[in-house]
Amino acid sequence: MQIEMKKILLIVIGLVMVQLISAQEDSAFDTGEWFKFKMSYSGFVKAGNATLSVKEDVLNGKPVYHVVGKGWTTGAIRWFFKVKDRYESYFDKSTGLPYRFIRDINEGGHTKNIEIDFDQINHKALIYNKKHKKNTIVNTVPNVQDMVSTFYYLRNNLNVDKLKIGDEIRTDMFFDNENYGFKIKYLGVEVINTNFGKVKCLKFRPYVMAGRVFKEEESLTLWVSADKNKIPLRIKADLAVGSLRADLESFKGLKHQFEIQF
User: Fold this and answer.
1) How far apart are the C-alpha atoms of 151 and 35, rounded to whole Å?
2) Is the residue at 260 inside a domain?
3) b/e map of 56-68 (b: 16 or more CB within 10 Å)?
4) Which pLDDT value is given to residue 216?
5) pLDDT digits (tens, 9 = 90+) for 71-93
């Protein structure tokens, strides 16, 4: 009986390991991935640059992905509206759930510097406001994401084969100091011209908060490659004043072959 139980346990462990390895092989990204975007304002004025990089780290004894996103204005716009933003997310390599999120921004003199530690077991967020040296604890929902980890989580878990035009994908995101029900609508497939040639893309509409920055709730459009990488190739945003467009300018460290149509 004991021998049979050992065999069963070994089989179960083996199946779990196979699933974990398979999940890692099928993931859309890995350590070393790096993107650089060029941004333009109202279609023709160069506005700035942004980068996204994926590193490997250990946080509180857990293996994590450490994603760093940076954005800054360039050229003439920099003289009257200077932007220097830095976002960081530490999320679990297996589950994709974030443990730490950092937002350090300076947007035309509007500054914010916060660090959020997520307790994914007890559903709490410890927010440290570095500017005001103040700690706040807020209740979160189960499996909450931050604004950076959300993108990588969706890249790995989105079942494209079952998507129909008009379908909405929903997830729970924590932004600054509150829970936010994030949703994104699938708009279909489109081939777009890029710096790398014509690329078949999945087109999405992330819903945003209308107000100070965005013109309306459906102001954002996102194109990601329809291959296994699901890399962001273009983002368009209708702002309260003008519009902003970001195009992928260069990349390295893709996990899968990048598929160009023409």
Assistant:
1) 14
2) no
3) eeeeeeeebbbbb
4) 62
5) 999 877 787 788 999 999 999 99
pLDDT in tens, 180-201: 899 999 999 999 999 999 999 9
Residue range(s) defining the domain that contains residue 36: 29-252
Q: What is the pLDDT of residue 213?
A: 61
Instruction: Give Dmax (Cα) for the chain.
Output: 77
Contact 255, 228 (CB under 8 A): yes
Q: How much is the pLDDT for 77?
A: 78
Residue 108's pLDDT is what?
86
Report if residue 10 sits inside a domain. no
* Per-residue CA distances from 137 to 105, 145, 215, 247 (Å): 21, 16, 32, 37
H or E segment to which residue 156 belongs: helix 149-157
Beta partners for residue 252, in sequence order: 34
What's the confidence (pLDDT) of residue 7? 46
CA distance 27 to 203: 20
Domain count, the chain: 1
Round to whole Å and give the CA distance between 240 and 257. 38
How far apart (Å, rounded) are the C-alpha atoms in residues 130 and 112? 8
Residues of the chain with pLDDT under 50: 1-3, 5-25
CA–CA separation, 131 vs 151, rounded Å? 27
- Kindly give, in sequence order, each residue whose CB lies less than 8 Å from that of residue 129, ignoring residues fewer than 6 positions away: 113, 114, 135, 136
Sort strands 98-107 and 220-225 into parallel, antiparallel or unpaired. Answer: unpaired
What pTM was computed for the model? Answer: 0.86
Report if residue 14 sits inside a domain.
no
Positions of E strands within 19-160: 34-41, 45-59, 62-73, 83-92, 98-107, 110-119, 124-129, 134-139
Structural domain includes residue 12: no
CATH number of the CATH domain containing 162: 2.40.360
